[in-house]
Amino acid sequence: MNNRRLPFIILAIIAFIVILALSSSLFYTISATERAVIFYPFGMGLDKDNIIGPGTHMKAPWNEVSLYKVNEMSSEENMDVLDKNGLSIHIDITVRYFPIPDKIGYIHEQFTIDYEAVLVIPEVRSTVRQVMGRYTAEEIYSTKRAEVETAITTETETILKEKNVHATAVLIRSIMLPEQIKVAIENKLQQEQEALAYQFRLG
User: Fold this and answer.
1) Predicted confidence band at 195 (pLDDT cuts at 50, 70, 90)?
2) Could you read off the pLDDT of 133-152 as tens digits, one per residue?
3) CA torsion through residues 148, 153, 155, 156, sign
4) In the chain, where the domains are located
5) 73-192 has which CATH code?
6) Angle at 53 between CA 50 and CA 59, to 5 degrees
7) Taking the model in full, what pTM does it have?
8) How far apart are CA 140 and CA 84, in angstroms?
9) What's the rounded Cα separation, in Å, for the pair 188 and 100?
10) If you placed Cys at 152, which of 8, 42, 168, 170 could pair as Cys (CB 3.0 to 4.6 Å)?
């Protein structure tokens, strides 16, 4: 009786081992901050519109799953730009962004998983250069810094949204000017503050 069952037991053990070996190819898990798209090499190809949500899922071993983080992310960049008068300014910026979750299939088709390097950063750098070229170094450094940030964010969001990515903010972390220009601007601002203070005392 036991001898008759032995082949079945052996087959069951072998099947169990095979399933364990293939489990990484058969099952995949998506976290709460991720979404996925699947590429079917022997079928429809990339399924752009069927976005897979959080949880543990099963797939055929030959199908390719691409995971995308859909929470807000940030990237830091430093670059040299020219102001309205052609003066070179070194700036450090931070861009905050996230892919539109139900559009990651289209992002994957056009830019792949490396969309940050292929799409986000080049567009941000281009927009920063264009916007800062409309202002003088003094305005960027002091009086219109918030206006510059707002313009960069608005224009970046417009461009990236067409490519299914949201840009929530582009922030200027630091601005470095040639020392003589920086000193001249700071002296001018100090003189303006002193003049206002003097007028206030007279009033």
Assistant:
1) low
2) 999 988 888 788 899 999 99
3) positive
4) 2-69, 73-192
5) 3.30.479.30
6) 70
7) 0.78
8) 10
9) 45
10) 170
